[in-house]
C-alpha cells in the first residue's frame, strides 16, 4: 500500500500477482492473469462504449438546443443500457447472395482491431496490459487493421452503396493514416522513444505539447484532424453519408453485427483521444510543477486513471464539438485536404522538430531547472 | 511565389473561419434548450386555437344545444364518421317535429377535415383542442356529443 497515492490500483494488482504466483505454478498463474486482463479489457471496452454513446447523445442534443435522452433513469443515464439490450436481442437478418464467409467475418476484423489498439493504452499507473517498446508503431498498425473489415464488408455485401462506402473509406483511411503516423513520429523524434510508458514518464514536468512548442502544437492539431478522419465521423463521414449511401459499408448489417460496427466507431473515437492524451498531453501523469512538492503531492492524491479519463474526455468533447460544427466534405476536397495540406505541413513540421531537437530548443533543454526530469 | 503565399494565407483564413464556426456552436451549446417536457409541463402547455382534436357540441347552462338534427354534417363527412339519429315528437300545436336523439361521432375514423363544422347551418358543433384522446379500448372512441336530457335551444325571436 502506497500511502502517498491512496487510490492507485497498482498496489492492489501487485498483491494479486504475488498471491497468484505464490500459490500456483508459473504457467497457471500467467494463464489466469491473462484471462483476468482479457476480461477487464473487454469489460472496460463495453462500459466505455456505453458511456460514450450516452455522452455523445447528450452533447449532440445540447449543441442542437435540445435536452437529449432524459426519460430512462435519472437524466436518461440508463438509456444506452436499454439500447444495448435492444440491439443484443435484435434479429440478425440473413441476406441472400452475400459472400457468406467474408460477410460474417468482417465485423470481427473491425472490432478485433479496435480491441487490440484499446489494450495497449496506458490507462493509469500500472494499468497497461502490454507495454511494447514500439508501442506507438503497434497502436498505429493494429488500428489500421480495421479498414480491412470495412473493405470486406463493402465487398461482400453485394450492394452498391456498401461498395462505394467501403471504397471511400479505404481512400480516406489510407490517406489520413499517413498524417496521423507522421504527427506521432514528430513527437517520437522529440522524446526518442516509442514506448508509451516511457513517453508518459518523460512528460512529468512538461507535457510534450508544451515541450516541443510550435511543431508539437501543429502535430497535435494535425493528429486530431486525421484521427477524426480515421474514425469516419462527421465532417469526414463520407463512407456512411446517409444522404447518399443509406448507411455506407454497413448498410446490410443488422442486429449485433451492426452493433459491432457501432461499438468500434465509438471506441475508435476514444482510442484516438486516448493516444493523443498519452502522446501530447502527458497521459495519466498528474499536473506537476518542479520544486512545488506540496502541490505535486496533492495532485498525486487524484488517482492517475482519473487524470487520464479527464484529459481524454476533453478531447472526446472536442471531437463531438467539431462533428456538430462543420458540414460534410466532398471526397475530392477530403483528399485535397490530406494530400495538399496536411501531408506537406506535416513533412515540414517534422523537419522543424528535428532542427529544434538538434539545436536544443525544446523547453526541457532550454530550462532544465523548470522542466527537466 | 504568388501561389505559395496564397497557399499559406489560405491555410490561415480557413483556420480562422473554422474557429469562427466552432465559436457559433459553442454559444449554441449554452443556449436555453427548446425541448418541451410534455407530461410535466401540462399546466403551461400552449396549444394553438386552430388545433382540431375532439369534436364537441357546446351546451349552454340550460342544457340546450343548437343542433336541429338536419343531418348535413353526416352527409358531408367523407368518412361516415358522424351519425345523426333523430326522433320525431309532436309539438303543442299538433305539428310533427324532428328533434335530435343522438349525435354520434367516432374519434377513431375522423380525419379532422373540419367539413362538418363548416357546413353545419346552425353552428352546433366545434372542435376543441383537448388533444389527450388516447384510450385502451376503441369502443371508447365513439362519442355521443349531445348530453343526456338536452334539447334544442329556442330561436330568439
Ligand atoms: S350538427 Fe349541425 S349539421 Fe349536424 S345535424 Fe346538427 S345542425 Fe345539422
Ligand atoms: S372533421 Fe371531417 S372526418 Fe371528422 S367528422 Fe367532421 S366531416 Fe367527418
Per DSSP E runs of 2 or more residues, the count of β-strands of chain B stands at: 7
N- to C-terminal distance of chain B: 96 Å
Number of helices of chain A: 17
SSE class of chain A: mainly alpha
- Biggest sheet strand order of chain B reads 3-4-6
Largest interface: A-B, 15 and 15 residues
Topology of helices and strands:
The complex is a heterodimer of chains A (373) and B (157).
Chain A lengths: L9 H14 L2 H38 L15 H10 L11 H20 L15 H9 L2 H11 L3 H32 L4 H7 L5 H4 L1 H18 L11 H4 L9 H26 L12 H9 L2 H20 L7 H29 L3 H4 L1 H4 L2
Chain B lengths: L1 H29 L23 E3 L7 E2 L6 H5 L5 E9 L5 E11 L8 H5 L6 E3 L13 E3 L6 E2 L5
Parallel strand pairs in B: 2-7
Antiparallel strand pairs in B: 1-5, 3-4, 4-6
Bound molecules: iron/sulfur cluster (2 copies).
The site of one iron/sulfur cluster has 15 residues of chain B, from helix 3.
Overall description:
The complex is a heterodimer of chains A (373) and B (157). By secondary structure, chain A is mainly α. Chain A has one domain. Helix content of chain A is 69%, strand content 0%. The two termini of chain A are 25 Å apart. The model of chain A has no long low-confidence stretch (mean pLDDT 83). Chain B is of the alpha+beta class. Chain B contains 3 helices and 7 strands, in the order αββαββαβββ. Chain B has a 3-stranded antiparallel β-sheet with strand order 3-4-6. Chain B has a two-stranded antiparallel sheet with strand order 1-5. The model of chain B has no long low-confidence stretch (mean pLDDT 86). At the A-B interface, α2 of A face α1 of B. The complex binds iron/sulfur cluster (SF4) (2 copies). The site of one iron/sulfur cluster (SF4) has 15 residues of chain B, from α3. The site of one iron/sulfur cluster has 12 residues of chain B, from α2.
Amino acid at each position: 500500500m502506497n500511502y502517498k497515492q491512496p487510490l492507485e490500483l497498482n498496489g492492489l494488482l501487485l498483491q494479486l500477482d504475488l498471491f497468484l504466483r505464490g500459490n500456483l505454478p508459473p504457467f497457471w498463474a500467467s494463464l489466469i492473469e491473462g484471462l483476468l486482463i482479457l476480461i477487464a479489457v473487454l469489460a472496460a471496452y463495453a462500459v466505455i462504449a456505453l458511456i460514450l454513446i450516452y455522452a455523445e447523445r447528450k452533447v449532440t442534443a445540447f449543441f442542437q438546443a435540445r435536452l437529449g435522452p432524459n426519460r430512462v433513469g435519472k437524466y436518461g443515464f440508463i438509456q444506452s443500457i436499454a439500447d444495448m439490450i435492444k440491439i443484443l436481442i435484435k434479429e440478425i437478418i440473413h441476406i441472400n447472395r452475400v459472400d457468406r464467409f467474408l460477410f460474417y467475418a468482417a465485423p470481427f476484423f473491425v472490432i478485433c482491431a479496435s480491441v487490440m489498439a484499446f489494450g495497449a493504452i496506458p490507462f493509469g499507473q500500472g494499468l497497461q496490459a502490454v507495454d511494447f517498446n514500439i508501442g506507438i508503431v503497434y497502436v498505429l498498425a493494429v488500428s489500421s487493421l480495421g479498414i480491412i473489415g470495412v473493405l470486406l464488408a463493402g465487398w461482400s455485401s453485394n450492394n452498391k452503396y456498401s461498395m462505394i462506402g467501403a471504397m471511400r473509406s479505404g481512400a480516406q483511411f489510407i490517406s489520413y493514416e499517413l498524417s496521423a503516423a507522421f504527427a506521432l513520429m514528430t513527437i517520437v523524434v522529440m522524446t526518442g522513444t516509442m514506448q508509451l510508458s516511457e513517453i508518459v514518464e518523460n512528460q512529468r514536468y512538461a507535457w510534450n505539447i508544451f515541450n516541443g512548442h510550435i511543431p508539437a502544437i501543429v502535430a497535435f492539431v494535425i493528429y486530431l484532424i486525421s484521427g477524426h478522419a480515421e474514425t469516419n465521423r462527421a465532417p469526414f463521414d463520407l463512407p456512411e453519408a446517409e444522404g447518399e449511401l443509406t448507411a455506407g459499408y454497413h448498410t446490410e448489417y443488422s442486429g449485433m453485427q451492426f452493433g459491432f460496427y457501432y461499438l468500434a466507431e465509438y471506441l475508435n473515437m476514444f482510442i484516438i483521444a486516448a493516444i493523443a492524451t498519452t502522446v501530447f498531453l502527458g497521459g495519466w501523469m498528474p499536473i506537476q510543477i518542479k520544486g512545488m512538492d506540496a502541490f505535486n503531492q496533492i495532485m498525486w492524491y487524484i488517482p492517475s486513471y482519473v487524470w487520464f479519463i479527464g484529459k481524454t474526455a476533453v478531447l472526446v468533447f472536442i471531437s463531438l464539438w467539431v462533428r456538430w460544427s462543420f458540414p460534410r466534405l466532398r471526397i475530392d476536397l477530403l483528399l485535397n485536404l490530406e494530400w495538399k495540406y496536411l501531408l506537406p505541413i506535416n513533412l515540414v513540421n517534422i523537419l522543424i522538430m528535428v532542427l529544434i531537437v538538434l539545436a536544443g530548443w525544446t523547453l526541457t533543454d532550454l530550462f532544465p531547472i523548470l522542466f527537466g526530469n | 511565389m504568388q501561389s505559395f503565399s496564397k497557399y499559406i494565407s489560405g491555410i490561415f483564413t480557413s483556420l480562422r473561419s473554422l474557429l469562427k464556426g466552432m465559436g457559433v456552436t459553442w454559444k449554441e451549446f449554452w443556449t436555453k434548450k427548446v425541448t418541451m417536457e410534455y407530461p410535466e409541463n401540462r399546466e403551461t402547455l400552449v396549444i394553438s386555437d386552430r388545433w382540431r382534436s375532439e369534436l364537441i357540441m357546446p351546451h349552454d347552462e340550460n342544457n340546450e344545444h343548437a343542433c336541429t338534427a338536419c343531418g348535413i354534417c353526416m352527409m358531408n363527412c367523407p368518412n361516415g364518421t358522424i351519425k345523426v339519429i333523430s326522433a320525431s315528437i309532436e309539438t303543442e300545436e299538433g305539428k310533427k317535429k324532428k328533434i335530435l336523439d343522438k349525435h354520434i361521432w367516432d374519434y377513431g375514423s375522423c380525419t379532422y377535415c373540419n367539413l362538418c363544422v363548416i357546413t353545419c347551418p346552425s353552428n352546433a358543433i366545434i372542435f376543441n383542442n383537448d388533444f389527450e384522446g388516447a384510450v385502451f379500448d376503441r369502443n371508447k372512441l365513439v362519442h355521443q356529443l349531445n348530453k343526456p336530457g338536452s334539447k334544442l335551444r329556442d330561436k330568439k325571436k
